[in-house]
Write a structure and sequence with these properties.
The complex is a heterodimer of chains A (156) and B (685). By secondary structure, chain A is mainly beta. Chain A is built from 2 helices and 10 strands. Chain B is 42% helix and 21% strand. Classes of the chains: A mainly beta (156), B alpha+beta (685). Chains A and B meet through strand 1, strand 3, strand 4, strand 5 and strand 8 of A and helix 6, helix 19, strand 21, strand 22 and helix 20 of B.
Chain lengths: 156, 685
């Protein structure tokens, strides 16, 4: 393989959310943690399920499907990937609720195709940057910056 | 740069110290020079003037000494000249005058530029020969150069601490092996690597983090990491054994490549030494200069101790619940004692973070002098309460807001002399900056005796800028109108001036102040001025608070905003429309549920089992919050809420409970403001 091809290979963590497989670059993952005691934050953007304490840091927990399809109550057990996000404003971390972590593997990112709009319609499209086709089914590739919901005006 | 041949190598830390000290001395000198300028030939005759002259002389002397010790030629020359002149003044050989003050102020400006250039590595300005000559001319030209304070100046900046040595004994090694005989070995390997990354000072793994894939563990996966803190080893080991597929965790000392046996445990940690050994002058030998970052780390560690103390107390309760009352009693005696020590340690550390506001206030007389000259307005600038102590980070946070408010006072507050005389006032106004402690708050006020705020002009402008409509205006109380001043993009100045009113305004002031959990309000005295009042917490890191249960979730309410707690069943409520009203101290105050403040937010719903009313006090009025239960008081450690949660009105920050859960800290002012805002909007719709 030539260098440009090799360059397109990245380590990727794959996981399931509502039976859809997603992938995110391993380099962006800080932790894989059980989420137990979630604290609900009234007035926070709807995609924010709450906050957790990750060794003294308070980390917002986000759901990919922010439409309120699932509500995590105080005390529910879940699994989250703590994702590091660097955008134009600052470095921060968000915990993404997932159902199951399935694999860590190398993937050829040059094979990413544009997504079928229908597939991501129910997701927050800004987080999904493309799709990788595999025998077992498509993997939607997520971009960390897209996981941070916009701050909303309270009550609007 | 102008280093002479003896110029020493200066590390960046020494450089930072040198620059910081120079800035401090220049600030100090400037304060005295402004007094001298104002008093003219009278200076030196009043009480306290002699002390001021001593201060000024010492500042110049210190500047010179420090600059000379590192071979900073230009600075030494100028400070030396100024020192000579000051010596003459101090010893009564030269009469202080406005001229001397003016020349020395110019010298201070040049020294500031020199300092700034040193700090930033930029091109230093030339020291004007004419300035040095002028200072020389004003000096009593006896030419004798004597430095009576020399014995007090220590060349400490040339001292370079030994490079920090790692204490080889304290470095622990952990080796982990991951089996490939597990369901998803690659995921397990990643979990192990991530866990180690959290604790390791350095680590190596096979496969490397970026190289993990399905087949990577075929020749066995392993991680070796070195931990700087031995107490982390147990933590890490526990975490590792919880990860499926981990078959071996081995711990041990790092092989000693460094001179091991000589590294004694009672060595002063290198970090502490380098941060504390740079005391600037031996004249203040009872004080040391400590890196702010080190102070922050100390504070954070104490804060963690406070969290753990709270946790221990709750564990003892659990023990008692399990019938182990003997053990729990014995433990609680020990824990209580430890708690006492933790509390006093926390207080002491908090104490060390306190600095007199004087450090900030002395920046302002110069600024106000310049504003006086450029604005054409006449006013006295008075400063009071500079000895009030405040947490360092709070002082840093209110610097810009105060500059803005002071500029506003000149620009919008004080009228021009002619208008003042027409209104029957003296042509010169007064702007007063004052600080004092009030219960658990530090109050910083800027007041002027100008014309006060023009309500009609404020509402008219807000309407033009689309902040309110005609309908909204009619319903606005005086308080609401004053609140408009803090709206984004609002400015009352008809013409945009150099001084203030460039569109960024009081909204930024409010944001900065609220960021450190403070509040800002304005009082208006029509025709006779206005007062901006900043109210700041005593400390930035913890807050005494009441814990309450609302809908099964714990919330934290700072005691500073609570007036009283009342059992719901003990009172008769009245109603005003939809809002229940509580008779309270001869008045009626509205009652709210938390969900009222966050309309449309699922999850904040009430339980219908409210048992108590917490009466919250605001700047101007009280209201009641309905809660299910009161859970007791604690010293809550404040943790910021970051993006994407950020600024939710009514929720200022969060804390971590002894059980590890997060609890939100409510902000009484923010809640009520948000309530009024939404109420207005509902009515407008």
């Amino acid at each position: 393989m030539d260098s440009s091809e090799r360059h397109a290979h990245h380590s990727m963590v794959t996981f399931l959310i509502d039976d859809q497989e997603y992938g995110i670059k391993t380099e962006c993952i800080r932790s894989i943690i059980p989420v137990g005691d979630l604290t609900f934050v009234p007035g926070a953007p709807s995609a924010v399920a709450g906050v957790i304490n990750l060794r003294g840091d308070i980390i917002p927990v986000v759901e990919l499907d922010g439409s309120g399809g699932r509500a995590y109550a105080y005390g529910d057990e879940g699994l989250a990937l703590v994702v590091e996000v660097s955008d134009e404003r600052e470095d921060l971390a968000v915990a993404l609720m997932v159902d199951e972590v399935t694999q860590v593997d190398r993937a050829d990112f040059s094979g990413i195709e544009d997504t079928d709009d229908l597939m991501v319609a129910r997701n927050r499209a800004e987080a999904v940057v493309g799709v990788l086709s595999r025998d077992a089914g498509p993997i939607l590739i997520l971009e960390p910056t897209g996981l941070v919901p916009e701050e909303e005006e309270v009550g609007s | 740069m102008d280093w002479d041949d003896d110029g020493m190598d200066m590390g960046s830390e020494e450089m930072t110290t040198l620059v910081a000290e120079a800035e401090e001395e220049l600030d100090r000198a400037e304060g005295v020079l402004l007094q001298m300028e104002a008093a003219g030939g009278q200076f030196g005759r009043r009480d306290g003037d002699q002390a001021s002259l001593d201060t000024l002389f010492r500042s110049m002397h210190t500047l010179k000494g420090n600059a000379a010790s590192v071979g900073w030629v230009e600075m030494t020359r100028l400070a030396h000249a100024a020192e000579d002149l000051m010596q003459g003044v101090r010893d009564g050989m030269v009469t202080p005058s406005e001229e001397i003050a003016d020349v020395l102020l110019r010298a201070v400006d040049v020294m500031r530029e020199l300092t700034a250039a040193l700090g930033s590595g930029g091109q230093p300005p030339d020291v004007p020969e004419s300035l040095v000559a002028e200072i020389g001319r004003l000096s009593a030209s006896d030419g004798e150069v004597r430095c009576p304070g020399d014995s007090g100046s220590v060349d400490i900046l040339g001292y370079a601490p030994d490079p920090p040595e790692m204490n080889a004994d304290s470095i622990c090694e952990v080796r982990v092996r991951v089996s490939e005989e597990t369901d998803i070995p690659a995921v397990r390997a990643l979990q192990v690597i991530l866990a180690c990354e959290d604790y390791a000072r350095e680590m190596i793994s096979n496969p490397p983090k970026e190289g993990i894939d399905e087949g990577a563990l075929e020749d066995g996966g392993w991680v070796i990491c070195h931990l700087g803190d031995p107490s982390d080893v147990d933590h890490l080991e526990g975490i590792l054994w919880d990860i499926e597929g981990v078959v071996e965790v081995e711990r041990g000392r790092m092989e000693e490549s460094a001179p091991g046996p000589t590294a004694e445990t009672d060595d002063v940690p290198a970090e502490t030494e380098s941060a504390t050994s740079r005391s600037g002058r031996s004249t203040e030998s009872r004080q040391i200069r400590v890196d702010v970052a080190l102070m922050d780390r100390l504070m954070n560690q104490v804060v963690e101790m406070v969290i753990n103390r709270n946790r221990l107390s709750s564990l003892i309760d659990t023990l008692a619940d399990h019938g182990l009352s003997n053990l729990s009693e014995e433990m609680s005696a020990t824990v209580e004692q430890m708690a006492g020590i933790t509390t006093s340690l926390q207080e002491d550390i908090m104490q060390t973070r306190l600095v007199p506001l004087e450090n900030l206030f002395r920046r302002f007389p110069r600024m106000m002098r310049n504003l006086r000259k450029s604005s054409g307005k006449e006013f006295e600038f008075e400063v009071e309460g500079g000895d009030t102590e405040i947490d360092r980070s709070l002082m840093d946070a209110i610097g810009d807001p105060l500059i803005h408010i002071l500029r506003n006072a000149v620009d919008h507050g004080i009228e021009d002399p002619k208008t003042r005389e027409e209104a029957g006032k003296s042509p010169g106004g007064v702007i007063r900056l004052s600080a004092f402690r009030q219960e658990n708050h530090i109050i910083v006020e800027v007041s002027d005796d100008g014309g006060g705020l023009d309500f009609d002009a404020i509402t008219a402008r807000a309407r033009r800028q689309g902040i309110i409509d005609v309908d909204g205006e009619r319903r606005m109380s005086e308080e609401d109108v004053l609140d408009l001043l803090f709206s984004p993009g609002f400015s009352t100045s008809e013409e945009i001036t150099e001084i203030s009113g460039r569109g960024v305004g009081l909204d930024v002031v409010r944001r900065d102040v609220e960021e450190v959990n403070g509040t800002v309000v304005v009082d208006n005295r029509e025709g006779s001025g206005s007062t901006f009042r900043l109210s700041l917490p005593l400390t930035v890191t913890t807050v005494r608070s009441l814990l309450v249960d609302i809908g099964g979730q714990v919330y934290v309410i700072p005691l500073g905003s609570i007036r009283e707690t009342i059992r719901l069943e003990s009172v008769d409520l009245h109603r005003a429309g939809e809002t229940p009203m509580l008779p309270f101290r001869g008045d009626y105050i509205p009652l709210f549920r938390l969900e009222d403040f966050f309309s449309g937010c699922e999850g904040a719903s009430s339980s219908g089992r409210e048992g108590y009313i917490v009466v919250l006090s605001m700047d101007r009025r009280d209201y009641g919050l309905l809660v299910d239960d009161l859970l007791g008081e604690e010293e809550s450690v404040i943790k910021p809420l970051r993006r994407p949660i950020g600024n939710i009105p009514g929720i200022s920050s969060a804390t971590i409970r002894p059980d590890g859960r997060v609890a939100l800290i409510l902000d009484a002012n923010g809640l009520f403001k948000e309530m009024r805002r939404t109420a207005r909007r509902v009515i407008n719709e």
